[in-house]
């Protein structure tokens, strides 16, 4: 294993933990009356990539063999290594006898040849090369077995609780299993964490060693907005597909496991994407530090304080299309008048989101600046106005 390999995993763990705390999401789908399409595959998951919310699912937690969807994790780890500068895309890796002898789909590597990380990645994601997967695994971690340990560590970091990898390729192996939900989580992370490298998954063909091979993901040519991700097939796994598409500024992630044919998995994913894009919208509403309004401050050095959303990251919400069109936000001031001192980050109000007459979210609103107490005569005047002159009047903050 390369010396920096474990370091980048530790840094990734810290970043993921921060993202989990700092990326609140909300869904308002409990009253949804629009049923998802009938899908014949053994399991599927349809996820909104912005929020991570599941739109539709069937047997999403059923453990099944993933076939070459395994290579999404292989790509994720190599992307991580490139991003952390443990590897460079132009680094050369030597093809071992084991990689050359890989069974199943291949990019036709020659034993002893030196191949760039870029070429191996394209052979992995476009041609689904098992030889490319093993060459990358050995090149980064020293052996495929050590790389598989990294795969399982990363799966735990991403919260893929029902996934266990036994190899880098997806060939049948004892205990090698995942779920539609876990694969959706991984696919979302791939597109989110490494958007530049992720673009490789949209390539429709790739030529290596004089052999031109086409991407088996037919959505890339037949579905507007599709930009990945990976197909898979073994006799045990059936026909599998993890896919992603972007429309209406919304990315959907879909996973189909154990479909009956290559044509069916494409048709099933098309139906799921059509359902998601027709009936749902995901929106990013409030950024941290964005001033939404001002509140009156009594007895302060400033008359008002700017107020904004109190989360650590942007607030995101998944809604039905109808609810998205009727979404309203209201800043509800405090029950008691706001008096100085006020500190940056103090919760001073609530943001109420409604769609039609239905509440969909209740969020903290915080002061965006400090407000110190004003001079004594100003505090006294405000005290008199607040407590003596109008004692029975409601104290409206807005």
- Please identify, by name, the CATH architecture of the largest domain: 3-Layer(aba) Sandwich
- Fraction of helical residues: 25-40%
β-strand number: 17
The structural domain count equals: 2
User: Secondary-structure element order, as H and E?
Assistant: HEEEHEHEHHHHHEEHEEEHEEEEHEEEH
Our estimate of the beta-strand percent is 25-35%
Largest sheet: 5 strands, antiparallel
> Roughly how many Å is the radius of gyration?
26 Å
Name the strands of the widest sheet in spatial order. 3-2-10-9-8
CATH C-level name of the largest domain: Alpha Beta
How far apart the termini lie comes to 60 Å
Separate helix tally? 12
CATH fourth-tier homologous superfamily of the largest domain? DD-peptidase/beta-lactamase superfamily
Determine the oligomeric state from the structure. single chain
CATH topology call of the largest domain: Beta-lactamase
Low-pLDDT regions = 12-27, 391-398
Active site: 68 (acyl-ester intermediate), 71 (proton acceptor), 128
Domain Peptidase S11 D-Ala-D-Ala carboxypeptidase A C-terminal: 280-373
Pfam families: PBP5_C (PF07943), Peptidase_S11 (PF00768)
Organism: Candidatus Amphirhobacter heronislandensis
């Amino acid at each position: 294993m390369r010396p920096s390999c474990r370091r980048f995993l530790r840094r990734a763990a810290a970043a993921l933990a921060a993202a989990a705390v700092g990326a609140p999401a909300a869904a308002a789908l409990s009253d949804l009356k629009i049923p998802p399409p009938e899908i014949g595959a053994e399991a599927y998951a349809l996820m909104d990539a912005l929020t991570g919310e599941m739109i539709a699912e069937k047997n999403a937690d059923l453990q099944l063999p993933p076939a070459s969807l395994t290579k999404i994790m292989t790509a994720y780890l190599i992307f991580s290594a490139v991003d952390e500068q443990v590897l460079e895309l132009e680094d050369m890796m030597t093809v071992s006898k084991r990689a050359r002898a890989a069974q199943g789909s291949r990019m036709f590597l020659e034993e002893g040849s030196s191949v760039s990380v870029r070429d191996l990645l394209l052979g992995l994601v476009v041609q689904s090369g098992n030889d490319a997967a093993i060459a990358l695994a050995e090149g980064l971690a020293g052996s495929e077995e050590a790389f598989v340990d990294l795969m399982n560590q990363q799966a735990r970091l991403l919260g893929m609780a029902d996934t266990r990898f036994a190899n880098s390729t997806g060939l049948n192996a004892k205990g090698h299993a995942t779920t539609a939900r876990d694969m959706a989580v991984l696919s979302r992370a791939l597109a989110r964490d490494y958007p530049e490298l992720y673009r490789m998954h949209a390539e429709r063909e790739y030529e290596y060693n004089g052999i031109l091979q086409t991407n088996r993901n037919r959505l890339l040519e037949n579905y507007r907005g599709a930009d990945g991700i990976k197909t898979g097939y073994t006799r045990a796994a059936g026909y599998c597909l993890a896919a992603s598409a972007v429309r209406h500024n919304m990315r959907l992630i879909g996973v189909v496991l154990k479909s009956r044919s290559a044509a069916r998995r494409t048709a099933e994913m098309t139906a799921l994407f059509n359902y998601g894009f027709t009936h749902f919208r995901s929106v990013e509403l409030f950024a941290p530090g964005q001033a939404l309004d001002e509140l009156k401050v009594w007895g302060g050095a400033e008359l008002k304080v700017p107020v904004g959303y109190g989360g650590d990251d942007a607030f995101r919400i998944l809604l039905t299309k109808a609810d998205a069109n009727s979404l309203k936000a209201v800043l509800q001031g405090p029950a008691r008048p706001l008096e100085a001192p006020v500190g940056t980050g103090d919760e001073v109000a609530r943001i109420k989101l409604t769609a039609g007459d239905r509440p969909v979210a209740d969020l903290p609103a915080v002061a965006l600046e400090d407000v110190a107490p004003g001079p004594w005569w100003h505090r006294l005047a405000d005290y008199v106005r607040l407590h003596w002159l109008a004692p029975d009047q409601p104290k409206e903050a807005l």
